[in-house]
UniProtKB/TrEMBL annotation:
Belongs to the VPS35 family. Its main location: cytoplasm. It comes from Daucus carota subsp. sativus. GO terms for cellular component: cytosol; endosome membrane; Golgi apparatus; late endosome; retromer, cargo-selective complex. The lineage of its organism: Eukaryota, Viridiplantae, Streptophyta, Embryophyta, Tracheophyta. Keywords: Cytoplasm, Endosome, Golgi apparatus, Membrane, Protein transport, Transport. This is Vacuolar protein sorting-associated protein 35. GO terms for biological process: intracellular protein transport; retrograde transport, endosome to Golgi.
Amino acid sequence: MITGGGAFEDEEKWLAEGIAAIQHNAFYMHRALDSNNLREALKFSALFLSELRTSRLSPHKYYQLYMRAFDELRKLEVFFKEEDRHGCSVVDLYELVQHAGNILPRLYLLCTVGSVYIKSKDVSAKDVLKDLVEMCRGIQHPIRGLFLRSYLSQVSKDKLAEIGCQYEGGEDSVMDAVEFVLQNFAEMNKLWVRMHHQGPPRIKEKMEKERSELCDLVGKNLHLLSQIEGVDLEMYRDTVLPRVLEQVVNCKDELAQYYLMDCIIQVFPDEYHLQTLETLLGAFPQLQATVDIKTVLSRLMERLSNYASSSPEVLPDFLQVEAFNKLSGAIGKVIEAQIDMPIVGVITLYVCLLTFSLRVHPERLDYVDHVLGACVQKLSGKPKLEDSRATKQVVTLLSAPLEKYNDIATALTLSNYPRVMDHLDSSTNKVMAMVIIQSIMKNNTCVSTSDKVDVLFELIRGLIKDLDGTPVDELDEEDFKEEQNSVARLIHMLYNEDPEEMLKIIVTVKNHIMTGGPKRLPYTVPPLVFTALKLVRKLQYQDGDVTGEEVPATPKNIFQLLNQTIETLLSVPSPELALRLYLHCAEAASDCELEPLAYELFTQAFVLYEEEVADSKAQVTAIHLIIGTLQRINVFGVENRDTLTHKATGYSAKLLKKPDQCRAVYACSHLFWVDNPDGIKDGERVILCLKRSLRIANAAQQMANATRGSSGPVTLFVEILNKYLYFFEKGNPHITSAAIQDLVELIKTEMQSDTTASDPATNAYFASTLRYIQFQKQKGGVMGEKFDAVKV
């Protein structure tokens, strides 16, 4: 492309002048053709062809000029074919045009007449084509020479000697055609490469741009070779490919080598590539160090992969020619030859080789591991990858087996998989770890052995602990939560039907997550605890020791492990979470009828409540959790249960706020009345709890009156009334209709008091409660009789 506004305008002017000259002389040529005047036609055709001698146009502009001349030459060729019009034999015509004054018009005319000469069958096509290709050497200017030889190729392509062709025939005719195209290709390539060495260095970039515009002229020869009938595999292997590669390697030009290697791969059949793989690959290490070999090799492997996918019957051929081994060896030689190849290029080559292996030989895991091992070898001795493009390629490399097999278990069998991950920096390691977890979630993969779990957690250790010393506090909070929640979901995907193996899995996970530091443990400990409790419930009625195992999978042993695991949360500190987990474990121990363990776990929960839970809201939540869990547990004997319920009611009455005290105390009433056949039913202690909650509610009203001048809403009284009704229905003899009646009257009185704050929600709650009593009265039967004494 011509730089500078003035130069561009000059070029446009020169092009316009050239086109005008061609049109002017073509006009007189047409007049001569119409009058069948051969000499005048030759004279004016030589004149318009002289316009192609210009050196002032860029390839793009020269092409426009050439196409004008080409159109006129086609008309002239038609005239040459009609001997009765010009009265000159084709042999004499072939001699006549050689008298043109300038070499360029002379050669264009010779090519045109030569095309007609071959069609006349008066001479061997081989001799004419050889003569023409030799004479074209007279033009050594790169652009003029390339377009001239392109014209020769264009007019002769339908006359090339082919097997059974109308012009020749015979066994050697195909070879003659191939020889002509190869010779023309070689000369065009030399002209094309010569452009690289012309002009001052300051316009080198411009020259390279112009060269790239001419690449198709050279490449068309290779396309023509691929179209010649009779060029079978044997001829391609023995003649065509070696000769073409010889030109490619010997030209020692970066642009030419890249384009022509790519052209070879694109124009010749996949079958030929497969059968000549060794020869083709042998040329790659001989290319210039600056050639983008990775792109060309990638396209070759992609074509072969597509070939294998579209034609499964050829897969044995891939094994027979050892395609993978040859590709792997070629990549190794290329990397050795190009010592300055950036690491991203190296990894890209291995990504392509791995993709080829997965598509063509998916069953060969040894091939996959070989590629990963070769990548490790190239990365070894180098610092952690920091090039974002290189790390992206490594992620692609590691993701490929996951996407192909849809099974992390397959990837876990690859010994070099974790070794590749070792070369990633911390952030990319996390990205890859998330890819692995997402693959497991997407495919619902169950990792079922402790060995595989160990390898898996080694792979994702970037999420489990700090790899580069970066403090957790410096990490993005949202990203950190997403990562840890992913690890938690992963833990739930680990399962084995065999209890012994499942326990090994749990121990393996515990050993890994304990290295995560205090900020990660609240995310990773709970799923591990619940996974272990799932195993406990599976072993619910098993006890004692199992011989032959270091740590037998019995509930006792699992609870000991859980106790140690939950204790680590105290160093976070996260006492509320630890308390919840202790209660879950206590309930599971109860289901297994392990009273001492359940009692010990409850004790741990109470100790945490006493010593670690200081926030008043957290205390309220914790005491209700304790009460709810204790109510569901039925394994305790009288003494242990009394101790624990006493503690629970005591802590309930010591909460900071009176309303919280009241609700906790009346919740404790359920500890003394469990609605199942074997549950405790101590009506006296139930009424004591309810009366105590009434006193606390009354005290809360008085305190509100003293501090704010008005009592608060009577919500607490309505809630207690509902507890009275519940136990009354359940048949507690200590809850009488009179007591309910007195409580209803008390609430009505309080609501009518001037000092009581009105609350629509409380009013609606109380009204709903009264409607329920009325409903029970109307129901009739035993329950109706019980409620008859309550007046509302």
